[in-house]
Amino acid sequence: MEIKIRKALEGDEKKVTIIIDNEIWNADFVSFHPNVNTETLELSGKDFQKYILSLKNKCEVMEL
Fold it and tell me: Which neighbouring-strand residues pair with 21?
């Protein structure tokens, strides 16, 4: 079974709670693999925060 995290986050039901480590939330830049592991996407910390908050899901930032 393939899980589409982006689809779950961007869906209308908003059942997913996003939990992010403090260090990642406060980073200058955040890098991650989109749907392809041979590519890396890098966002500024502020743009990453804007994207996460735009999803309207419950979001918890904590020390993990």
Answer: 62
The whole-model pTM stands at: 0.75
Q: Is the pLDDT of residue 25 over 90?
A: yes
State the Cα–Cα distance between residues 40 and 53, nearest whole angstrom: 21
pLDDT of residue 63: 95
pLDDT of 16: 81
Residue 57 has which token pair? 């899901």
Domain positions in the chain are 5-62
The reported pLDDT for the residue numbered 6 is: 65
Torsion of CA 56, 52, 58, 20, to 10 degrees: 180
The Cα–Cα gap between 15 and 31 comes to 25
- Per the listing, tokens 């990642």 go with 24
Residue 48 has which token pair? 């990453």
Q: In the 8-state DSSP scheme, what is residue 26?
A: T
